[in-house]
């Protein structure tokens, strides 16, 4: 049997990080269902301490997800989950953001302006990338075609 998966990113503050990644990828943050949350609290299955408010909306404190605009057929879901401990070492897994024909400098500059940190540039044969860290220190690579490799 083949399985599906979601990518889960640990975060000290998942909702702003999900917003950042949704913007970076052109994806959508999954909407919060406030009536559902309030119903679970009223029924005693959750408590107010399980929630927080983000951008004026009641949300689960534990995290949130983002999706490709075409849904799960476009790409796996990315979940941002709350963890209390800070990131301490290099990620063993990271996302490669493949930007196609978009201008790499424009993409990198946009993400830097939104809180990313430049780490380094890399190149190996036809593969070229810029490694950044998101606002909470998670590495990502902006991957693009190397026009000098032909």
Describe the fold and architecture.
By secondary structure, this protein is an alpha+beta fold. The chain has three helices and ten strands. It has helices spanning 14-25, 34-42, 104-113, and strands spanning 7-11, 28-29, 51-54, 57-60, 63-67, 78-82, 95-98, 117-124, 127-133, 139-145. The strands form three sheets. Strands 1-6-5-2 form a four-stranded mixed beta sheet, covered by helices on one side. The model has no long low-confidence stretch (mean pLDDT 93).
Q: What's the quick description here?
A:
The protein is α+β, with helices and mostly antiparallel strands. The protein has helices at 14-25, 34-42, 104-113, and strands spanning 7-11, 28-29, 51-54, 57-60, 63-67, 78-82, 95-98, 117-124, 127-133, 139-145.
Query: Which residue ranges are poorly predicted, with pLDDT under 50 across at least 5 consecutive positions?
Result: none
Q: Tell me the major beta sheet.
A: 4 strands, mixed
Order of helices and strands: EHEHEEEEEHEEE
DSSP strand (E) fraction?
25-35%
**Strand neighbour order, sheet with most strands:** 1-6-5-2
Q: Helix share of residues? A: 10-25%
Number of E strands: 10
């Amino acid at each position: 049997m083949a399985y599906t998966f979601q990518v889960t990113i640990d975060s000290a503050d998942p909702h702003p990080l999900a917003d950042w990644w949704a913007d970076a990828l052109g994806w959508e943050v999954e909407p919060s269902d406030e009536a559902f949350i309030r119903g679970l609290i009223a029924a005693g299955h959750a408590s107010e301490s399980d929630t927080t408010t983000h951008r004026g909306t009641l949300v689960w404190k534990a995290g949130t997800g983002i999706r490709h605009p075409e849904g799960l057929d476009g790409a796996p879901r990315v979940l941002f989950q709350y963890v209390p401990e800070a990131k301490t070492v290099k990620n063993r897994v990271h996302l490669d953001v493949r930007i196609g024909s978009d201008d790499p400098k424009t993409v990198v500059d946009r993400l830097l302006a939104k809180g990313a940190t430049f780490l380094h540039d890399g190149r190996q044969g036809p593969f070229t990338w810029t490694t950044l860290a998101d606002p909470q220190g998670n590495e990502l690579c902006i991957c693009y075609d190397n026009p000098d490799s032909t």
